[in-house]
Amino acid sequence: MSDIKVVEKPGPFTEEEKKLVNVPSDTFVTERDKDKPLVLETRHLGIDFGGLTAVDEFNIGIGATEITGLIGPNGAGKTTVFNLLTKVYEPTRGSILLNGVDTHGMNPASVNQAGIARTFQNIRLFDKLTVEENVKIGLHNRTDYGMFTGIFRLPKYWKEEKKSHEIALELLDIFGMADQADVRADSLPYGAQRRLEIVRALATDPKILLLDEPAAGMNPSETEELMKNIAKIRDTFGIAVMLIEHDMKLVMGICEVIAVLNFGKIIAKGTPSEIRSNPQVIEAYLGSKKDE
């Protein structure tokens, strides 16, 4: 196998390994991650747009192999949080630590190189390119040749292109898409396009993958497949996953930790069972009995 980082362990995990424990940074992670550095940590993170505070005091820590859900009503600030984490927006205040390194001053490209990859609410593929070509675009972090070498097709160019081809096919094979490598992206079914966008993000070799409403527009069978693929990502690559999602069946079924955002602030954090029974969450998001 080429330089795809597939791990022998961490997954699947035992129930003991899935238990949440407190760690010194005033957060909690799964038992299996307690002795590992947090992959992502935010401290007093916030952003203002003019006189409007969109996100405020957003504090979260994510373990190295944790699957975290970020839920909340429309307009709560969830995608804004993702834009802050990926430096699409520069925070007004607070800090973002990736593997303990402050991302202040980084731009979206350097944050991606440092280890954060994401997908979007609306699929953003290069429609006219093939499946493999889309994945190879995500491999830019691993390509080691300059413009001169590329223009004149020097031997190093062909060596790197061969390596990229092999890695792309290996990634596609993990998600059952290797036989579609030569298919144009815009001819794929909707669920496969979503899957391709995730594969392209994984091609950047992230430490944490941010999924923005990955189940949007999916039918129940596609959503079920997505749940399996999210678990496969964590178990195969040994990375963390953070997702924004409105499909509560998916969130409750796959996430180990859930944070609930309302009006730009976290109002609750905990396990799926804790969130499901939290009165604030029921009233703010899941719907109180008096609203039924």
Question: Can you give a write-up of this model?
Answer:
With 292 residues, this protein is an alpha/beta fold. It folds into two domains: 1-115 and 206-292, Rossmann fold (3-Layer(aba) Sandwich); 125-203, no CATH class. It has eleven helices and twelve strands. The chain has helices spanning 15-18, 78-85, 108-114, 131-137, 147-151, 155-174, 190-202, 220-237, 248-254, 272-276, 279-286, and strands spanning 20-23, 27-30, 40-49, 52-62, 67-71, 93-98, 101-102, 116-118, 208-212, 240-244, 257-262, 265-270. It has a six-stranded mixed β-sheet, sandwiched between helices. A hairpin with a 2-residue loop joins strand 3 (40-49) and strand 4. It is globular and about 60 Å long. The chain starts with 14 loop residues before the first helix and ends in a 6-residue tail after the last helix. The model has no long low-confidence stretch (mean pLDDT 88).
